[in-house]
Amino acid sequence: MTAGLAGRPSRLLMSLLAVFALLVATAVNPVGAQDSTESTPEESNPDRDPSRDLLNLDDDGRQSPRLQGIWSDGSTVWVSDGHIADKIFAYDFDSGERIAGKDFDGLRVDWHRSVRDMWSDGTIMWVVIDDGPDWLFAYELESGQRRSERDIDLKETVAHGQGEWDSRGNDIPIGLWGNGTTVWVSDDDGVIYAYDLESGDFLEERSFGTGVSERNSARGIWSDGLTMWLLEGKSKQILAYELATGRRQPHYDIDADVDAFSQFTYGSDTGPAGLWSDGVTMWVPLVEFVLNEGTYAANQGIYAFHMPERPALKSLGLSDAGMSPRFSTETTSYQSGTVPTWLDSVTVTAEATSLTVSGDAPSGIVSIEPADADPDEDGHQVDLSPGANTITVTVTAAGGTAKVYSIEVERDYPETFDRVPEHDVEFSPELVQSHGGNINPGGLWSDGTTMWVGDYHSNSVFAVNPKTGEHEPARDIGVSYTIWSSDGLWSDGTTMWISDPSNPNERRLAAHNLESGDHEPEHDIELPVENGRPSGLWSDGTTIWVANRSSQRIFAYDLATGVLDDTLSFETASGNRNPSGLWSNGTTMWVTDDNDKTTVYAYALESGAALTNFWFHPDGDGANTTKRSLWSDGDFMWLGEFAEPEGDDFSGTGSLKAYKMPPSAALESLEIGRAVDTGSGSGSSAKSSTAATPAESQIEYIDFGTFAPFTPNYRATVNNRVSNVFVSATSEVSDATVQIEPGSGTGNRHQVNLDVGENEITILVHSADGSNWQTYTVTIHRNPVGGL
């Protein structure tokens, strides 16, 4: 940022010219004088707000008054007079009545000709003077007493001749404004200089050039902390600059060329000078000469202008993720870079600037998209999907003008589900030939030794060695004649259930003996009409889930009775319109889609909520390769893939493609207990624990149900005397991270204090690479005194 002029007239010459101009103006025909009866309406300027003008101020009989500096605390307004060196005048802000008791009297007249401008932090009033030492002089706001220790030497603090700054420095200061820590001072060279308010040090990084460098042009300044407005005397415009960067913001300029001002020529002693605003209205002091019965008289006034309606943010933040570039109210596009896959949500905070108001209208409205995922939490929660995410923040001003900010967040895909071709299962040529040259693996299930494959193009279920792909015909299953297409498979080790989406007359899961292959109709599960195209199957041994190919739904049934359980059934995501294969690890269910050939979807088994962090995009030609079935041993996942035929030419061979599963983030064990004194005589059933301290203590374990690594939620009730418990949690793999909240301690001995009533303990397990995690929740109800 550069500043100013290469040269300027001497101060003595400027003073003589100013005096001469004033004498001519007042004695002959004052510059700008007009007959008040010929004034045109000031409302012609849409930026004007005459309803808030302070006109005809009492001038105490001063000759040729010249208002210039202005500052207010909202109730009193102080103004300086360019022809009065030793005083600052106080007026009531609402009525314009003089408040002489708040005047600053007895300012040192040998320093300067007049006070150009002033600004206060509410305690100290700093003034900038005309034709005197280049200082900011400090006074007590309440008493007017000098506070010389708070003065700031402007010229001496600027690094003369260094960088872009004018070698003369801040030697003709004019206007000033501060924010409590920094004070900015405008200068005739077109630079707005910044200083540390406490130390007086020059702050080059906060200073900027305005391009306004003609004599008497750069006058008063005021800022809301985001935009700096500068009164430019020649054009009678109030120019806007971004405070943080110094960049021009012409869309926030204010037109100050009203009738009263337009009568004064450039260089006049009586033109507009200072600025002050309450954030809604901008005031500019001025003296207007009017013709009254043949005599020119001076009317002092403080003229009001509408501040620009500005939809803008004062602040914008994103938790747990960086944001580039650094926030600026005028910058609307931001990027966070790539965040790790385990970061599944961020919190957005946004605050509108005060200048989004108009008059007494309410503050600007801020809306954020996507919608708040958790309204009960502070801030606006946004769930992140793997890949690109766009967050938009719209701020709307009272008049309806809107401004949109955007943040791009790239969430990394899990570093899992990588292809591991060495674990693929390729069917032997003999097997492929025996099936007419093609196999469409519609269902998969394995006991760890043998892999059973249902062929969607036939009713056969054949057995292969998962390591070699060799056919094991002795373990094939002779499928019931009612099965047209063997699609979904699942077994409890004794019975194999098979689904068929192709036979409209048979809505059932056909049960077959795994050893003999015989049909066992007594174990068949009848399906309702809405589950008329059953596909993939998976069960935890109690409930069996069935995908329905013609609807976005996974149905759940009691495995023993076949009764539909709507509480465990769930809808699939919008892209997962034709769910096909199923497999779950007990907490997460992965689902393929018969039409979407590029994505394997994931859902929380308990709630059906989409777990986008575990969606993955398998390799292969997505245009013609169907991923119909899947099965996993916990370390690898196999997808049954089939190349779609050309017309009636079923010449695809089909194969089982292997992918690496996420590393374990499950607990191997979870115990909750309390230490009991061996001599307490409590009679409770307690067992020793190597973790118990002190040594004479024993552990009484709390019953919260049977722990299983893929069961996330547990509950227990304790009597009132149990005021705290310890939690011991061990992960399945040693390099996983275990975090327990609330309380303190380690994963092996974490202490939690209990309140009366509900207490929720959360155990979060992260895999070593952060790509997988599991959350367990134990709710402990502590009974009140006297409760059981």
- Counted beta strands: 54
Instruction: Kindly provide the radius of gyration, computed on alpha-carbon positions and rounded to a whole number of angstroms.
Output: 40 Å
Helix content: under 10%
Strand content: 35-45%
Task: Write down the overall mean pLDDT.
Answer: 78
What is the molecular shape?
Answer: elongated
Structural class: mainly beta
Distance between the termini: 76 Å
Describe this structure as you would to a colleague.
With 788 residues, the chain is mainly β. 4% of the residues lie in helices and 40% in strands. It is built from four helices and 54 strands. The two termini are 76 Å apart.
Task: Briefly summarize what is shown.
The protein has 788 residues and is mostly beta strands. A hairpin with a 3-residue loop joins β11 (173-178) and β12.
Produce the secondary structure layout:
Layout: H1 11-27, E1 34-35, E2 54-57, E3 67-72, E4 76-81, E5 87-92, E6 104-105, E7 114-120, E8 124-130, E9 135-140, E10 152-153, H2 154-157, E11 173-178, E12 182-187, E13 191-196, E14 208-209, E15 218-223, E16 227-232, E17 237-242, E18 254-255, H3 259-262, E19 276-277, E20 281-292, E21 295-306, E22 313-318, E23 333-339, E24 345-352, E25 365-369, E26 380-383, E27 387-396, E28 402-411, H4 429-434, E29 441-446, E30 451-455, E31 461-464, E32 489-491, E33 495-498, E34 508-513, E35 525-526, E36 534-539, E37 543-548, E38 553-558, E39 570-571, E40 579-584, E41 588-593, E42 601-604, E43 625-632, E44 636-643, E45 655-660, E46 667-677, E47 697-701, E48 713-718, E49 724-731, E50 737-741, E51 744-746, E52 749-753, E53 757-766, E54 773-782
Parallel strand pairs: 1-20, 23-28, 48-54
Antiparallel strand pairs: 2-21, 3-4, 4-5, 5-6, 7-8, 8-9, 9-10, 11-12, 12-13, 13-14, 15-16, 16-17, 17-18, 19-20, 20-21, 22-24, 24-26, 25-27, 27-28, 29-30, 30-31, 32-33, 33-34, 34-35, 36-37, 37-38, 38-39, 40-41, 41-42, 43-44, 44-45, 46-47, 46-49, 49-52, 50-53, 51-52, 53-54
